[in-house]
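Q: Could you write out the predicted structure for this multi-component system? I'm mainly interested in how the pieces pack against one another.
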Amino acid sequence: MIKPPKLLSFIFLAGVFAYVIAFWVLVTVDADSAQSRFDILVSENAYGRSIGHGEQLIALRMEQGATPDELAETKLDLANAHREKGKPERAVALYRDVLTSRLATRLELAERRNIKKHVADLELALGHSVKAAGIYAEFLDIAGDEAARQKPRFPGSMEASYVLLVQAAMDSFAEALPPVHDEDITTGSEVEKLQEATSLAKLGGYYAAQDGGNYAAAGLLSAAYRTRLTLLGPAHPDTLHTALLLGPIYQEIQRHKEAEELYLSAFHAQERARGSNNPDLSLYIRLLADVYKKQGRFTEAEALNTHIQRLFKDAFGARRYVTNKLRDRRMDINRPVSAAFPLSDEYIPDDLVKAEGFDVPLSKNSDLAEMSVRMATELDEDDDVGLPVALAALIKACQTSDDETLTLRSGYRSFSTQKDLYGRIGYRGTVTQPGMSEHQLGLAVDIDVNRRLMRQTDRAYQCFEENAWRHGFILSYPPGNKYLPGEDTYEPWHWRYVGKRTALLYREAGPINKPQEFLAALPCYEERAMAGIWSIAEEQDVCLEGVNVNVSASTDPAPAKTGDNVYYDNNSVVPSD
Ligand SMILES: [Zn+2]
């Protein structure tokens, strides 16, 4: 064995040492070398080791005066490394920089979506549920109408992919947020807090409609409610809206006490604002009575029941029903239209007017037949102004912000127009078969928000939900309805005029979210209203007995003209006059 001379060995070691120093100096002070070293580590997925180099690289580039846009690509790689191995806070900060850089506009949509998803997950892991909710609420906006459906209509689409991400996050929110919030957890200025509350409410409202979403919804809505209650007060429509979404969820998860508090607060706020004899109160009284019953507090429930009957009788002069009933039926203002109650191809209303003449803002050229609606005036109603005036007033009342513009997209459609339309775009599911559309009655309107169909997540939709009845409109196709053939016939944009009195009766005494059942059994509801008979629970509602207007109940498109289940006389399908 030859032993190397000591001097040679020393020279060799010194050489290695010098190389290491030189390399270290190079990557520490020379950005280009640092860049190539970082790129190699990134390409090898060596996340842990790449972090130090990446941070150093960014520091060097910034010293050289690099702009945020020039740093974005490095930041993206570094954020990924931090997400895998490093600090989640730092990953979030870097990702957020990337999202506001010019790089974000060049990224593929899917890539941008993934970055946001990473940010949302990290925020959730860091305990920043409100920030995460903001991102998922944004996903709901992008998903648009797909988010309103139980099953995506276009499963492979970008919109559907956003819906799936939101659905996948449901359990994380249920874990992260307690179902009851005693304190406001939003942050920033008052405006920012309210924006955060809007996101919380939007996401909570979405989960509320999903199977198994009660706990996630309770946490999110309760957080939104607390902020709105604190900043806006109990009587503000946004606070009330959140309370009305949250209350039923509390009841479902057996938190009756919390539900009672919500309803009581809403009731007292409304009582102060509108007076104790206002029929607006009956909604809250009904909800309260239901809570009492579920807790076995029957005496209190009965007391409310009596109170509500009095309010109700005040609001509906009994005699008006008798005088209106026959005429309404002839005018078809109250008739149901669906697969179970189709219209004949000859049905044409005789009081069509151009909506433009009544200051209804339009989506389309006013000369199109679709821009007409029925006048539908109820002659013996003192304050009845007819459909177009009521529609203009409703749109005006809900046209509250500059970033949502409301217009009429579609009013009257003849049988043949509906037939053409169904033939052309029926596959999209937003058009009903000819003869089954309320548009042929001239009493239905499709509303656009910013020139696309109104969505459940629009502010204007919330406003319609709360106020449409005051102007005589109801939502014809609520979530989960089975009135029309097809997978999903929820239509948040489609509002039907039934007249103020009937809309009020539906709201006060009708079955919840069953407009077609209500219209089919309207004479029964009217008679009971006259007699002051009231049933608070749907299972006790005798008017609903034997009424089945769902497609699934009968595949026969022609409805029976006689039989228990038809209160409505189909012989008047073609108007006699
Ligand atoms: Zn419609």
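A: Regarding packing and overall arrangement: Residues 316-330, 553-577 have pLDDT under 50 and may be disordered.
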